[in-house]
């Protein structure tokens, strides 16, 4: 086989790309492999089950709880620093943005608590069937909303 025959074969498309096909340039091997790779739809076209969404939300709520703890530390430091810094923090927390943060933080707290209780039930070896998981997911959402509503109503009646 001459070098011209080798170059002629290289310009023709190959059907099979195997581990022993090291005679082709790397770019050509990658292009052929990419053409043979199966296409998969984007993650956005899949519908995640509720339990997967709640699992992701549990992690996000944990991060949000840490952010809330940092805000609490800032509030405590402002209170220790004197009346002027405390007045600024108090004014922010009484504003719309501060109140939204507080209520979102409280809901994240209750949601994280309910999801943690769900994991404790799983630790006993119960609730692994699909029906139980879906029921527990809806219960988790309902109870966390109920706890948040109870705190909201308690603050309305106690501080109004």
UniProtKB/TrEMBL annotation:
Comp. bias intervals (Polar residues): 1-12
Principal location listed in the UniProt entry: membrane
Cofactor entry: heme
GO cellular component, one term: membrane
Function: Membrane-anchoring subunit of succinate dehydrogenase (SDH).
Subunit structure: Part of an enzyme complex containing four subunits: a flavoprotein, an iron-sulfur protein, plus two membrane-anchoring proteins, SdhC and SdhD. The complex can form homotrimers.
Protein name as annotated: Succinate dehydrogenase cytochrome b556 subunit
Species, as recorded: Methylogaea oryzae
Lineage per the UniProt record: Bacteria, Pseudomonadati, Pseudomonadota, Gammaproteobacteria, Methylococcales
């Amino acid at each position: 086989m001459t070098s011209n025959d080798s170059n002629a074969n290289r310009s023709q498309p190959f059907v099979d790309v195997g581990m022993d096909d090291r005679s082709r340039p790397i770019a050509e091997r990658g292009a052929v492999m990419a053409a043979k790779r199966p296409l998969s739809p984007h993650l956005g076209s899949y519908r995640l089950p509720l339990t997967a969404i709640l699992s992701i939300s549990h992690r996000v709520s944990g991060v949000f709880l840490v952010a809330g703890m940092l805000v609490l530390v800032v509030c405590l430091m402002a209170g220790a620093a004197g009346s002027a810094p405390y007045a600024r923090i108090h004014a922010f927390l009484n504003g719309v943005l501060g109140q939204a943060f507080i209520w979102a933080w409280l809901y994240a707290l209750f949601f994280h608590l309910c999801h943690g209780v769900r994991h404790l039930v799983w630790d006993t070896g119960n609730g692994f069937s699909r029906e139980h998981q879906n029921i527990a997911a809806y219960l988790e959402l309902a109870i966390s909303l109920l706890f948040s509503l109870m705190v909201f109503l308690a603050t309305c009646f106690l501080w109004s």
